[in-house]
Amino acid sequence: MVNESGQLYTIEGIAAGMIMLVTAYLVLGATSVYTPGDTHISDMQLEQLGTDALRMMNTPVNGTSESQLREIIENDDANAFNTQFLNYVNSKTGTETDNLHYVAEVSYRNITDGGTTWSYPLADNNRPLTGGEHPVRVTEWVIVHKTLPPDAPYAPKDRAVLVEVLLWRD
Amino acid sequence: MAGLNDDAQWIVMMGFVVSFSLFFLAMILNQSTVVGQTTAEGVLEFPKNDIRDVRSVIISSAEIGDPSDVHNDITSLALSRKGAVVDYTITPPTGSDLNTHITIHYNNGVTEYNEIWTSP
Q1: Is B77 on the interface with A (CB under 8 A)?
Q2: Do B31 and B62 reside in the same domain of the chain?
Q3: Interface-testing mutation among B34, B77, B88, with chain A (most A C-beta atoms within 10 A)
Q4: CA-wise closest residue to A9 among B68, B77, B1
Q5: Looking at residue A3, what is its pLDDT?
């Protein structure tokens, strides 16, 4: 016959053990969620910043002129894009600048092979993607007057292209 | 209470109360860290800028003389590069109706947007 004294202590021990196990599980789960939650917030800000910069570049200064982004794509002017885009995204209050980098591409529909999507590099700031960055992707639709693909046997005509920018901070 | 001294039951009960309150505090702490993530995810995954952008390019394409290439560009690029089904129809001014009407449909599988735009 087993001595049945001390049953309350046994129950209390089991209950305390379970509480400690579940608490440890909750706390460990909480810390593993915290890091992605944190990066999401800075991603959100970066995405809005990049979208706004592209939107500003795609806004004409008056009703008759073309937007700056449209002129850049029509002339393949990588330097103008680099200067203006970095100026918009890296400006901060005061003299110090932010440290954002980007790779920009233009996607278009190839009308010579039945409509597959092609992309070509538009500009970058000499920081190739190594795979260790955590970039966000921002895009802007632009209507251009251009021959696409460049070697197609057509005169320039109005086309819609998608400017895609990968943007990251390091 | 089989063979057990039943003094100090008050202390045992307070022990339980304190442990359970710690347990619930841990649960609240666990939930609070997810709040930032779900909020940011909600903002990131809602295609606000995509819809604004495609809407503005569609409306500006109404002023182009031959919009058939632009129409195919927008629908095919939106599907292949943005993962969204976009379609629109431009009805130019006819007869006594001096306004341009555009019906816009956008659907990326999660968010759907439909609009009938009338020129001012």
Answers
A1: yes
A2: no
A3: B77
A4: B1
A5: 77
